Amino acid sequence: MSTTALAHRVRVLAAAGHRHDEILTPAALDFVGRLAAAFGERRRELLKERRRQALRLASGAPLDFPMVTSAVRADPTWRVAPPAPGLADRRVEITGPPERRMTVNALNSGAQVWLADFEDATSPTWDNIVSGQLNLLDAIERRIDFTSPEGKEYRLGDRDRLATIVVRPRGWHVDEEHLEFDGRPVPAALVDFGLFFFHCAQRQIDAGHGPYFYLPKLENRYEARLWNDIFVLAQELLGIPRGTVRATVLIETITAAFEMEEILHELREHSSGLNAGRWDYLFSLIKTFGHRTDFLLPDRAKVTMTAPFMRAYTELLVRTCHKRGAHAIGGMAAHVPGRDTAANEAALAKVRLDKEREAEDGFDGSWVAHPGLVSVCRDVFDGVLGARPHQIDRTRDDVEVGAADLLSVRRISGPPTPEGVRVNIAVALRYFAAWLRGQGAVALYGLMEDAATAEIARVQIWQWLRHQVIDRATVLRLLDDEVVALGAEYPWAPVDEIRALFERTALAGELPEFFTPDAYSRHLVRRTEAGA
């Protein structure tokens, strides 16, 4: 592959950092440029279609399973690709940002899979993005061992006991403003995918696995088709056999829930299943239907996985995956073990119940956010799976889910509690503070929170205000109190910036789709340009 054909059209708009030259090589930038040239316009058109669909639904258009693809759903013959090496047994998957310490701890955790997360668990400072790529390369090359300033040693264990690496790039809605192709920011998804694929795909194959990915925030089959075409071209450019890539799609938007089979079908030669991205799913539901009173959700803590519309979503996911020979992976257990023994025991009991429900429903594995939860999740799935790697043969033909079931939110609809309002404001502010400082995974009130948490917190405030179940004066009073508390707790925090971010993304008349593009362009990019 030529290293000069497109490299001159790719510009890095940030100062060089430590070892950045090992990732941002001319050949790697050329590869990313080729992806941007081939798919940038399609991605822009798909984002326009997202906005058109959002307007249609807001105007009252019904959401249902697509009639045009009924033949795909009715055809009993097609299947996705068989499990790839290292992805047959996925009973425990641990998630976290590709920071150096997290990389070692996650790979050594005893989980079968590590989701190296450039998306919700990473604050996308340029150094975080490039350093994350370096950490993955160093881990695959087994040169990531290090000693912390406190003297603690971090060493990789035996290769055959390490978790399989699966990378989650950022979503289609995000641009990487530190990397430009032909005068436009490169789609962040292509940066994260392209740099990892270029440097690590063949290395992973040589190590007995392959280039594996999680795909976030897809809204329809066309976005899955775009990813499949990217995989085809990427494999062709690097001489890797077609079908080597595997990708698991997070079903974390309400529109994608109506196209699960179609998404698997589009990706079938590269598919490794679907995941129930529960927190972003709730965020998507509010964002899509938050203007309707019958979609008014109570406190987040009250919207459990036993809610009828959430049960419908997860059971349909298991049935869909197993019908097509794919893995179904369950949702996140976000508890962070602490020093309070009684609180830990109560939290772990809830985690165990959640994992028992998933395993009994037919899921093949589930997510945890902390190494301390790996054994709990593993024990539950061991009890159901035994020595089997999965339970794909359990097809769940008993499950029948219609559009009304997926949208039956009114059965738990209700106003928030005063404490629920306060907690949402407190969590959003604290997460914004950490994110602006460069930290994307944050322990708050005993839970490991990421961007999905802040999204739910702020859109719930917006929804409650819109339907006047809380008044603006109350929210502003609580905001004042929590800003003061934030400044005392985090004296380094730019409280004025954080408050302004909350007001723009939670209190505006029109709800911004995501908080991250606003915060990224106003704060993270500006700080990079200033050399901060």
Main features:
single chain; 19 helices; globular; eight-stranded parallel β-sheet; 532 residues; 15 strands; alpha/beta; three-stranded antiparallel β-sheet
Would you mind describing this structure in some detail?
The protein contains 19 helices and 15 strands. The protein has helices at residues 20-23, 26-58, 70-74, 100-107, 126-140, 188-206, 221-238, 254-257, 260-266, 278-289, 308-323, 341-361, 374-385, 403-406, 418-436, 451-466, 472-489, 495-506, 516-529, and strands at residues 10-12, 92-96, 113-117, 146-147, 153-154, 164-168, 175-181, 184-187, 212-215, 246-251, 271-276, 328-333, 365-368, 442-444, 447-449. Helix 7 (221-238) runs parallel beside helix 9. The protein starts with 9 loop residues before the first strand and ends with a helix.
Protein topology:
Layout: E1 10-12, H1 20-23, H2 26-58, H3 70-74, E2 92-96, H4 100-107, E3 113-117, H5 126-140, E4 146-147, E5 153-154, E6 164-168, E7 175-181, E8 184-187, H6 188-206, E9 212-215, H7 221-238, E10 246-251, H8 254-257, H9 260-266, E11 271-276, H10 278-289, H11 308-323, E12 328-333, H12 341-361, E13 365-368, H13 374-385, H14 403-406, H15 418-436, E14 442-444, E15 447-449, H16 451-466, H17 472-489, H18 495-506, H19 516-529
Parallel strand pairs: 2-3, 2-13, 3-6, 9-10, 10-11, 11-12, 12-13
Antiparallel strand pairs: 1-7, 4-5, 7-8, 14-15
Helix pairs in contact: 2-6, 2-7, 5-6, 7-9, 10-16, 12-13, 15-16, 15-17, 15-18
